[in-house]
Amino acid sequence: MASYATSAVADRVRETNRFTLVDASEIQRLQKSNQSVENYVDAMFIGRITRAVVENDTKTTAGWTDKKGRYYPPTTTYYTKVEVEFSYSLKMARDGRLIGPISRKGARSASSGDGYPSAEGLLREALTSQIALIGQDIAPYKSREQRIFAEDKTGIDGIKMEMKEALAHVKVQNYKLALEAYLGIYERYKSPAAAENASILYEALGDTEAALGIMQKIYDDTGNPRAQLVIARLRRNLDDKAKIAASEQEDTRQPVDKATTFASEEIQKVLPSEAVVWLYNNSPSNTMVEAIVDNLTAEFIRKGIGVVDRQNTALVEAEQTRQASGAVSDAEMVRIGNAAGAKVIVIIGIAGSGAMRRLQVRVLDIERGIPIMQSDTDERWQL
What we know:
Serine Threonine Protein Phosphatase 5, Tetratricopeptide repeat; Rossmann fold; three-stranded antiparallel β-sheet; Double Stranded RNA Binding Domain; about 25% strand; 3 domains; five-stranded mixed β-sheet
């Protein structure tokens, strides 16, 4: 069943026309050789069948008589029922973050006079019915919703006539005129039906907030239970719009730029007043770290933070010492920084590799000779 589900999911993902699929065997090969997969895929689809139940031991035996009184001897009918549950997630290749899991459950049943129906076939049908919904979970899609215009139940002839005239505007798609008509009816007669129809038109014209506002007013004034249902639906729609807007405005900067900005903010939080900073590249062979040091230097200078020139004689000596010994102790760093006129040392490097690679930052206070900041494994440091 898992093998069948994997094939069915792959077909469904292809049908979305949103993704390029990489064969699982290629990812397994990379993982076995301890290679990072982030250069080959953005995410991995991971699924698991969590439950599969087959009930195929039910049978009934009975005879029957037709309308003409003819008797038919007993026959046996076999009955099979299955239930299957599965869950799936998207695992982001860069940082291992999971989107999900999403759980689904399907059921099928069948009867036969020739023996038990195929449990395997029913399980596949149950899986297929739920896998068909996966496209909605992982790819954008459009949906259509219908709204039924409410009818006024007061029986007042004047309201009935005006509601009919307003609906005539709707039928010819004069939505603004219809909206004005329904709002007028509500103002004159306090008709909940007119207010509900006005909310439908507000929503059709793209103003969901106004639709919610008028329905909230109706509920506050009358406690109408139908208004409460409409309010709940409108709030869900507004929440969905907010989520979409947030995803569209999501930060599209490269991970290294995000991490650099975050590092700058965190470093500035601990800098003493009138700080003079020595930015030390602890991974000199890494061009990415060199770029980060350059960007932080430019950022600090723009903000009026003193930065020691890296061509300073004492700093050049530190670099030569590091190249000769492969390491420089904190005490030696403090001594050199003090000689160069720095008050704070910011040591920048990279820890980890592949999807777990992250920016590593330590900040040393030269006057006290102690570290005052150390980056952690928070995903905001991920590169």
